[in-house]
Amino acid sequence: NSTGPLSFASRYNRRGSASTESSERSTADHAHRAAVWKTAIDPTTGRTYYYDSITRKTQWKKPAELKALEKQRKEEQRRKAAKFFREMEENLMASLGRGELIPGIPQTTAATANIKPGSV
Question: What is the pTM of this model?
Answer without folding.
Answer: 0.51
